[in-house]
Design a protein that fits this description.
With 510 residues, this protein is of the alpha/beta class. It is 32% helix and 27% strand. The protein has two domains: 3-237, P-loop containing nucleotide triphosphate hydrolases (Rossmann fold); 255-333 and 419-509, P-loop containing nucleotide triphosphate hydrolases (Rossmann fold). Bound molecules: adenosine-5'-triphosphate and magnesium ion.
Length: 510
Amino acid sequence: MSHAVELRGIVKRFGTFVANDCVDLVVKAGEIHAIVGENGAGKTTLMNVLFGLLQPDGGEILIDGKPIVVANPRAAIAAGLGMVHQHFKLVPSLTVAENVFLGMERGRAGFVDHKAQIAETERLSRDFGLKVDPTEQVGLLSVGIEQRIEILKVLARGARIIILDEPTAVLTPQESRELFQTLRGFVAQGMTVIFITHHLEEVMAVSDTVTVLRLGRKVDTRPTADVTKNDLVQMMVGRSVSFDRRQREPSTGGTVLSVKDLWCRDDRGLPAVRGVSFDVRAGEVVGIAGVAGNGQTELAEVLSGLRPASHGTFRIHGEDLTAASPRRIRDTGVAHVPGDRVVRGVDRQSSIAANILMGRQDTPPWARGSLIDWAVVRERSSEMMERFDVRASGPDALVKSLSGGNMQKVVLAREFSHDADFLLVDQPTRGVDIGATESIHNEIMRQRADGRAILLISVQLDELIALADRILVMFNGLIMGELPGDSVSEEALGLLMAGVQTGPDRAAVA
Ligand SMILES: Nc1ncnc2c1ncn2[C@@H]1O[C@H](COP(=O)(O)OP(=O)(O)OP(=O)(O)O)[C@@H](O)[C@H]1O
Ligand SMILES: [Mg+2]
């Protein structure tokens, strides 16, 4: 079999830090090649080098057996490469077709031929089974559809070798299955796929070959059929990791959060949450499951003061906070890990220490009066980096230089160290490697043992099953049902998530 991509001895340094240390990689034409490794192992860096976004400090790149210099992404695209990034880059005010052809508009003499662009988008969409409406405005679409558009963009530029960086991190299980069908379709047509993931079940289910990176070096490349999940964990982390359901005694604590008949609207003004009521008690983890777009995000936004409720109330320790500001809600004792770390979770331009300080600029010992004590901030930040396993040179490192998973750990370190009675935790392990996922799960259980009330929103059913005392399933803005965390099956959850309350024969749909 010929080689679609061959990397020989790629070295990439940032200052004195070696992110890729003489990495060799062979990707055969027509295969699905998975790349795995801990946060900061150098996966994104290696793909950015291949795609011409970074220039290597050493090594060679061959595409289809021919050595090339990938001076920039334009050169990569000309060589047949396409890349779907960890964070999407679409223009919300443009239509689907306009986004697909952005920067390579069809037309003549400065006039965009919208008809041609729509027709071409439709053709690609049909040929590759990526369902979209070319005339729809992108700003209103779900992340699953945004990703389809990113893939269509790559296809419209003629890519034959497609790189996807953590494509499933933002997808629901259903959307992930659809994506994998699409990827299989690509290789069936002779294309080659490279994808980065933290989910080993995905590696086992869809890849032909898997490469493990660790601390900037390649550990091994193996046919997927020859390895087990445990082998991969060992290669990635150097130890085994437990994913068992956690032991949990029922909570006997008092009610901390009480939500009554709560309603709110989405960005388009349509009802997103339609009359939900539930309590979360001290020392309890209540999970919220559901396919994305069924009101979970809006619910979290209302509870953190970022979106107004249109009806109903929520209280913390009996205090009505329905109309309170985010600041007041936080001061009352609510910590919030937002679902989208890039938009709201961190200030990328600032240091880790400055990010950990956020929200306590006038709280001793972080500050005396209005004067911030940076020595204390740095020392505390170092302690938290240790406890949450944030991999970086130190508390002064800029957040934008961190790998995706390490950014997420900074948000968790900040929020979990607040003295809050209620933790609102949205997708805490999105983009986080398996070793760190285990430590985040441990930390959630430690917070629970300390008597905190925790609302855990996750699209990952195994995470909810592992941690939650009770799981509420949201569908179309309603709570469809409540299941006990320690005995529920993924199938039962899947049914409720699809909006089916009875009739197990429809389970296959989910
Ligand atoms: N522009 C940069 N400046 C300084 N250091 C960087 C830069 N980009 C990446 N790094 C460092 O290089 C290492 C590898 O980062 P990379 O983003 O490749 O990791 P990754 O394997 O993709 O991790 P993740 O799973 O968290 O996305 C990290 O330690 C990161 O902090
Ligand atoms: Mg990465």
